[in-house]
UniProtKB/TrEMBL annotation:
This is High affinity choline transporter 1. The chain crosses the membrane at residues 12-35, 56-75, 95-113, 134-156, 162-187. Keywords: Glycoprotein, Ion transport, Membrane, Neurotransmitter biosynthesis, Sodium, Sodium transport, Symport, Transmembrane, Transmembrane helix, Transport. Pfam families: SSF (PF00474).
Amino acid sequence: MTAADDNDGVSWLGVSAILIFYLVILVIGILAGWFKTRKGSRHSTEGATQNELAIVAGRDIGVVVGIFTMIATWVGGGYINGTAEVVFRDGLLNAQAPVGYAISLIVGGLLFAKTMRERRYLTMIDPFQERYGVYIGGLMYLPALFGELLWSAAVLNALGATVAVVVGLNGDLAVIISACFAILYTFVGGQYSVAYTDVAQLICIVLGLVSFDDMGQYFGWSIVLIGNLKESAT
């Protein structure tokens, strides 16, 4: 058994597995959002505004889920693919992103996190807008907007490239389908859905990395993937 069908180059086994995975993530996201927003927490979400529930999950996702969703936010597909490429091409010392990200998280946690939580800010722009006014806040929003657009594009592009290599599916189609699933569960449950689906996805990543070698040898995927990667690189 191979990862690609001889007729059309698409691994329908892989496509089926990805669709099942997406459905599981969608169900987790919708249920998490529904449970948290409808039932609510017995303590810290009481009195939370709709914006707080949607953007920061009512400040009540807990330490463990918070760690998982922070890892998922920073260590996305673009980060993983880009870091791997730089290390392979230029060596470990030239991979600057992991060091820069680590320093920024430490500085942010030590200098900003406690104060921003106490003052119930929702974004990094809020304290500057409070201090310097709405015009400065609006001006600072522009680089944040363009940065997020480029970051989202990098993540979706990495997703499309990965799916194209693994299952032979068109990368653009994979990006569109994935974005629709993410938009749907985020629309239903807000940050609650995002946080709990991050937990599920990171668990799947760890299990996949641990079991890939054995499963790949069994299904013959390792050889096919190496061949696809070589073809993509040429």
